[in-house]
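Session log. Operator J.P. requested a structure for one protein chain; no other inputs attached. Running the standard single-chain path with token output.
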Amino acid sequence: MRKVYTSRFGEIEVDEKKIVHFKNGIPAFEDEHEFIILPYEEDSPYYFMQSLRSPDLAFVLTIPFLFFPDYTFEVEEDTVQELGITNSSQVFYYTMITIPGGNIRKMTSNLVAPIVINSDNMQAKQVVLEKSNYTTKHRLFPESAQKEG
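Structure written below.
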């Protein structure tokens, strides 16, 4: 176990086996190599990906298939090799969420750059999908749901 201080969660104990390793960091955060994924709440579709290096750096994630059941893409062979993936059951997929102006009704998910994690060795990579019909800002909730309230 490793103790890590975070600005959002205070001091937390992190199981070394649950640390997600990004060999080359993530785009725009190339110096960030170790993260822990924490649930927002029990049974929530949201997660925090907290940096173990920078106490103030945490990303909000979701499992994209919960909101976009038809979401599909191919992981390129070099990524499969880099992460040591041998079968699809060992892979977890997340996408980053943006909350514009703090308005959760307008949350979007970046479907162009999913995070791929090999759960066997905890190696991960944020991949950028080439020639994709997806965008960096797919709304999680339809426009019609926002007119209420």
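Operator note: The CA atoms of residues 105 and 145 lie 8 Å apart.
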